[in-house]
Please model this.
Amino acid sequence: ASISVAKFLEKSHIWLINVLFLAGILISMVISISDMVKLHPDEYIYFNRLFGKGVAQASKSYDTDYWGNSYKEAVDWVVNNYPVPMNGPKLKIASCLFSLSTSYYLQDNRFEYIGSYNDGQPVSGTPDLFLASPRWGCDEKLQGETIHTITRMGAPLTYIIKVTQNSK
Model:
């Protein structure tokens, strides 16, 4: 890309065109850097604003958080915000993605990971909370109330659902 820009500037002898061309490149770079900061630590879900219409729009048609990176943030939210009595029964949690993407972060003795609906350890029992990504419609496997959503730039990555009953 740098060689192309240098060649363009070399061939173009009109000062205003060179300035506008460089300004366009600089504006594009600033927008991309801003998007990366907003998406952190999930930069890999980026979609081009011009062709992909940005992350929020692209997330309706394409997989975004296919690695399940946002599950750590979802587990952190549950551990820090969801009321669980210290001496009561453990809160049962299931997920959609790789078992390890959730179970690894549930080191707190107030929680019990009971499995994944798509990959890894099969779910045993009915969860109290369901960490679900929109990937493959997994967020529709159980009915319940969405109590929190992990998002980036308007795109939902992981839903934290308080389960009311089994569904599909």
Summary: The two ends are 49 Å apart (CA to CA). Strands lie at 91-95, 111-116, 129-132, 142-152, 155-166.
